[in-house]
Write a structure and sequence with these properties.
The structure holds two protein chains of two kinds. Chain A is an alpha+beta fold. Chain A is 36% helix and 38% strand. Chain A has one domain: Alpha-D-Glucose-1,6-Bisphosphate, Chain A, domain 4. Chain A has three helices and seven strands, in the order E-H-H-E-E-E-E-E-E-H. The chains are: A alpha+beta, B alpha/beta. Chains A and B meet through strand 4 and helix 3 of A and helix 4 and helix 5 of B.
Chain lengths: 163, 334
């Protein structure tokens, strides 16, 4: 089952990527995450591994994941190594109106779990969708706040030589 | 092989009948003694046997069958792939029916053998075990070896063979040792059948029945104890009595090593005696709290007093259970 949510952010990809490209910070803005730890020496980038858990109703679900795609300012995808089968993806696309469209997708399931698996994936979907939606709203708030702060700092800099 | 429930709360295996020549001699001796008794007290023959005595041969046959069916514990029976494929089913049950909530799993040490000690609730269905096993397996991953000790009757019941794939083994000191030696996490319920069938008005009471074998196991293997306290399981049915007197009257304590014959009001039976066929549990909210690990020698010294540890652990668990009970607004609803 795949759940996808998107949001338009009034900030350039560079500002958003500060959060998206650093999975170590996910604990601070991804909703439902109860654990997100770096596993191994590599902190980020292609091949970095993390142990993550997300609360979905009665259980914390997740496992060991690995970053399998890392295109700076554009795409970051991960895939599960152990635990629940999952594949997640961030996608950042700049729009002509100065906004950046951010997509967060999560495909999940348990291979070989039959009808119960099919049913549980659908019952879990609203909870997971809610987590993704809240995560994107948090990201939008953080990125737009940073953008406003940067713009304000720039305005102050521009004003100061004239005074 | 039959099992004997020790005061430790762990069942130990013992031969149910002598074998070979010894058996024959014993049998002969028994017959002789019986004959003698009949000769000296001829009047006994004329009195009709009580109903309980009539049921005894049947129970003995059942006991033999149960003993025969108890599988020999093999840790390799645990099947992580099977557990993984079963997680969605357990998740559906835990999330939709019991609205399970497990807290503090981070208190369980990340590696090495650990003895989880829980209070047991919910009759023979033990919903708290389902909720906890799911939470443990998703939190640590099915790769982490996790075993649970269960009563021999559970292990020998037809249709429950799948429990072995989940890591359930017959409760015995030997099996506990084997699991801990292998570096696994082991879940025990010292209260066992005594606690799991306690009446509803004792639902929020930790009652291990004085069984302290788990402490000796933890000391022998030098493993930390992590208390696991659950609430809500005892509200899945209206448990009225342990039926200890009834079990004694029917001789179940001698034939099946069963000290209880629980009586409850449960779906779909109404009055449910024995709970051998299970029941439909009420959708009670189950909350489980995992406490900080207790390193016995660090906290109680090199030569710790088992009684002191026992009262410390049960007091700690009782306090947690009281706090969990304080959070609950209504029975079943939670």
């Amino acid at each position: 089952m795949k759940v996808l949510e998107r949001v338009d952010v009034s900030a350039p990809p560079e500002v958003i990527w500060n959060y998206v490209g650093d999975p170590a910070s996910y604990l601070h803005f991804i909703s439902g995450i109860t654990r997100w730890e770096v596993q191994g020496d590599q902190q980020s980038g292609l091949g970095a591994r993390y142990r993550m858990l997300m609360r979905v109703r009665s259980a914390e679900i997740g496992g060991l994941i690995e970053v399998v795609e890392y295109a700076e300012l554009a795409d970051l995808a991960w895939s599960s190594v152990t635990g629940l089968d999952q594949r997640g993806r961030w996608r950042l696309r700049e729009r002509p109106d100065g906004l950046t469209r951010v997509e967060l997708a999560l495909a999940y399931g348990v291979a070989g779990s039959g009808l119960a698996g099919w049913l549980s994936e659908r019952i879990a979907a609203p909870t997971i969708r809610g987590h993704l939606r809240r995560s994107l709203q948090q990201l939008k708030r953080l990125a737009e706040h940073d953008q406003l702060r940067d713009l304000a700092a720039q305005r102050r800099e521009n004003r100061s030589p004239a005074t | 092989m039959s099992t004997i429930e020790t005061e430790t709360g762990l069942n130990v295996s013992a031969p149910s009948r002598p074998s070979g020549a010894k058996a024959k001699t014993k049998a002969k001796a028994k017959t002789k003694t019986k004959a003698k008794a009949t000769k000296t007290k001829p009047t006994r023959r004329s009195t009709p046997p009580p109903k309980a005595a009539l049921a005894l041969p049947l129970l003995k046959a059942l006991a033999r069958e149960v003993s025969r069916r108890i599988p020999v514990a093999n840790l390799d029976d645990r099947d992580p792939d099977y557990i993984r494929a079963s997680l969605p089913r357990a998740w559906l049950l835990s999330s939709l029916w019991f609205r399970g909530e497990v807290r503090g799993l981070g208190n369980i040490p990340e590696s090495g053998p650990v003895l989880l000690v829980g209070n047991h609730s919910g009759g023979n269905l033990t919903p708290d075990t389902i909720v906890f096993t799911l939470a443990f397996s998703t939190y640590f991953g099915v790769e982490r070896a996790f075993y649970q000790l269960a009563h021999n009757l559970v292990m020998s019941a037809p249709g429950l063979g799948f429990l072995r794939k989940f890591g359930t083994v017959a409760a015995s000191s030997e099996n506990a040792k084997r699991a801990l030696d292998s570096g696994a996490v082991l879940l025990v319920y010292p209260g066992g059948d005594h606690e799991v069938h306690r009446p509803i008005w004792e639902a929020n009471r930790i009652d291990f029945g004085g069984r302290k074998g788990f402490i000796r196991q933890a000391l022998a293997h030098d493993v930390p104890i992590v208390p696991v306290v659950s609430i809500g399981g005892q509200e899945t049915s209206l448990f009225l009595s342990r039926g200890s007197g009834l079990a004694k009257l029917l001789g179940l304590d001698r034939s099946l090593r069963l000290k209880v014959l629980p009586i409850s009001l449960a779906l779909p039976w109404g009055i449910n005696v024995g709970d051998f066929l299970g029941h439909i549990p009420l959708p009670s909210k189950i909350t489980i709290e995992t406490l900080a690990p207790i390193n016995l020698r660090q906290e109680f010294g090199d030569d710790p007093d088992v009684d002191e540890i026992y009262s410390h652990i049960t007091r700690l668990m009782q306090e947690t259970l009281d706090a969990l009970a304080g959070e609950r607004r209504f029975p079943v609803i939670g």
